[in-house]
Design a protein that fits this description.
Elements lengths: L1 H9 L6 H9 L7 H36 L10 H36 L17 H8 L2 H25 L14 H41 L4 H12 L2 H22 L5 E4 L4 E6 L8 E7 L1 H12 L4 E3 L1 H10 L11 H16 L15
Parallel strand pairs: 1-4
Antiparallel strand pairs: 1-2, 2-3
Helix pairs in contact: 3-4, 3-7, 6-7
């Protein structure tokens, strides 16, 4: 028990989106049955408003023979059973549309709270629920007692509200025996509407408060400890140590690939010591492509490999710095650097053709 209390006390963090989604997949959502009741009463009230006359007419037609010709019904043998079956069947036919509206309203309430949700998790049998000890604990748990008391309070509040709404009408009830059946129907419909409106008004407040409470309880049950959040992050995002190692391996692999591409480069643009960017340009590429780039020690290594493989090295500090910041490996040079890169490549081409000999390492002069 002490370990459970300690475990609960450590769950101080709000549930993550992943935890909430997993709970939703299991059918664990914040929902209040009071909203279902409210929607059913609202549907019944609306249905009674538009179909009340038809419903009462159907009920009176089914009950009229019992009032006008009670002597015509046989109560001997199976006669009484047939009479009751006929009366119930006719009454159900009259109120069936109202029941259908209430069922649709109850389903709409569930969708309104948590969207369309289908989960088979609650249907999976759990043998732990068959234990008498577990059932006894669940029956007399704090939540069960609280829900029982909450139900009593709700019934008391609704009953009191209905009593206050009908108190002034109770004195006129004895006079209904003198009225025609149609007049009685209209009077009873007025009383029923008054009760329904009163119940809806009271249950609006009850449903709103209960929804907030159920939502609070739902989030409280799903609270997580800091360790659980760390474990979830590792599962979803990966262990930071492993991710760091993977990143390091990728960088090393990219660096090896980059170094092997330098001998095929057309030119290496340098800072001269801080940055170095190797470019390759031929007829198969629409624009020069960056095959290697680096800073400091990597830049020094690029220059060494370029020197060993007789790749021209051109010093152009602004261009080297700009290319290092704006172009990635295997990407084309951005259009804004076309002119400067074209001047460098033109200088290299002339150098190779010995049309305009220039000493290695001398910066090309921009065209005026």
């Amino acid at each position: 028990m002490a370990e459970e209390a300690e475990d609960e006390s450590s769950k101080t963090e709000e549930p993550t989106g992943k935890r909430l989604e997993e709970a939703r997949e299991k059918g664990q959502v914040a929902a209040t049955r009071e909203l279902n009741h409210w929607m059913m009463f609202m549907g019944a009230t609306l249905g009674f408003t538009f179909m009340g006359q038809a419903i009462w007419r159907g009920l009176t037609d089914s009950m009229r023979p019992f009032f006008e010709r009670p002597h015509a019904f046989s109560v001997e043998g199976g006669g009484l059973q047939l009479v009751l079956t006929y009366g119930i069947f006719e009454a159900l036919k009259s109120i069936l549309p109202l029941l259908a509206i209430m069922m649709v309203a109850a389903a709409a309430a569930q969708i309104l709270q948590n969207g369309f949700l289908v989960s088979t998790e609650p249907l999976i049998p759990k043998f732990s629920k068959l234990s008498p000890v577990t059932g006894f604990k669940r029956l007399f748990s704090f939540n069960s007692v609280f829900e029982f008391l909450k139900g009593l309070i709700k019934i008391s509040i609704v009953s009191t509200a209905c009593w206050m709404a009908l108190r002034s009408e109770l004195t006129s009830l004895p006079s209904y025996v003198e009225l025609d059946l149609a007049d009685v129907g209209r009077a009873m419909m007025a009383l029923a509407m008054k009760v329904m409106v009163t119940v809806i008004a009271v249950m609006t407040l009850i449903a709103g408060l209960d929804y907030l409470y159920q939502r609070f309880q739902h989030y409280k049950r799903l609270r997580m400890s800091k360790q659980e959040i760390k474990d979830e992050y590792k599962q979803s995002e990966g262990d930071p140590v492993v991710k760091g190692r993977i990143k390091q391996l990728r960088m090393e692999r990219a660096r090896r690939r980059m170094m092997t591409a330098i001998p095929k480069a057309t030119v290496v643009v340098t800072n001269p010591t801080h940055f170095a960017v190797a470019l390759r340009y031929d007829d198969s590429t629409p624009a020069p492509i960056c095959v290697a780039k680096g800073a400091d020690l990597v830049a020094l290594k690029i220059r060494e490999i370029a020197t060993e493989n007789e790749v021209p090295i051109v010093e152009n500090r602004p261009l080297a710095r700009a290319l290092y910041a704006s172009v990635e490996l295997d990407d084309e040079v951005p259009p804004e650097h076309y002119k400067a890169v074209a001047e460098v490549i033109s200088y290299v081409m002339n150098l190779k053709k010995k049309i305009a000999p220039v000493g290695r390492g001398e910066a090309p002069r921009p065209a005026r």
